[in-house]
Write a structure and sequence with these properties.
By secondary structure, the protein is of the alpha+beta class. 19% of the residues lie in helices and 29% in strands. It starts with a helix and ends in a 6-residue tail after the last strand. The strands form two sheets. Strands 1, 2, 3, 4, 5 and 10 form a six-stranded mixed β-sheet that branches. A four-stranded antiparallel β-sheet has the order 6-7-8-9, with no helix packed on it. The chain is globular, with a radius of gyration of 23 Å.
Length: 224
């Protein structure tokens, strides 16, 4: 085989390889590994979840994204084992501790029923939270209303205490399954631009104010 023939044959093989690669559809490629700190805003997280998860997603699939890849802390609900959450804390330059509280409800089949970002449903924004107490829960004894604060001492240069209002159906704070809260937090996990103040009306367990502990992750970008 002459040098020119060998070059022609190699060029032909290269073209065949390129054509084979181009024939692989984009949808067949695996999504890149999930990282909490790569998601900046509440809207970004909602959009990401809608693009990758739906009601056919399994519990294992959701855990793989948020726990295995994202390194979140997994917590199964104490009295509702079909509900669990994946929490992740980011220290934004000692100005604010951002909590991602992604929680999910599953059907008996193990498929995703609803997923929440900081207590707000994503797949169906009008979905009724099964953990949310009803008005009838406090009808006999009367509800208690309390001003509360979630300490965040790591935010030594900024908001080191997150205030909210806790509404307790039986006015007994030792029983937590009949509680809801009203509070607010920023829309962006960015110490240069925290976005707007976003109001929450949810149950404490799904919220940014919950007392569950997660490892603290440092902000990866440049601090102000």
């Amino acid at each position: 085989m002459t040098g020119r023939s060998r070059l022609a044959r190699l060029a032909g093989l290269a073209l065949m390889g390129a054509a084979s690669a181009a024939a692989i559809p984009a949808s067949a490629k695996e999504p890149s590994a999930f990282r909490y700190d790569a998601v900046v805003s509440l809207d970004d997280m909602r959009d990401l979840i809608r693009s990758e998860l739906n009601r056919s997603s399994s519990r294992d699939e959701v855990r793989r994204r948020f726990v295995t890849e994202g390194h979140a802390t997994l917590i199964v609900h104490r009295t509702a084992p079909d509900s669990e959450k994946y929490i992740y804390d980011i220290n934004l330059c000692d100005l604010y501790v951002w909590r991602w509280n992604i929680s999910a409800d599953y059907a008996p089949s193990g498929r995703l029923r609803e997923i929440y970002v900081n207590g707000e449903p994503v797949l169906d924004p009008a979905a009724v939270d099964p953990l949310m107490p009803t008005s009838a829960d406090g009808a006999k004894t009367g509800a208690g209303v309390y001003k509360m604060a979630r300490p965040r001492p790591e935010a030594s240069k900024g908001e080191n205490s997150l205030g909210y209002v806790l509404i307790d159906a039986d006015a007994d704070r030792r029983t937590t399954d009949d509680q809801m809260l009203v509070g607010a937090g920023p829309t962006r996990a960015d110490p240069h631009d925290f976005g707007k103040l976003h109001a929450y009306n949810t149950v404490p367990w799904r919220s940014i104010f919950d007392d569950d502990i997660a490892p603290m992750t440092a902000f990866r970008g440049r601090c102000p």
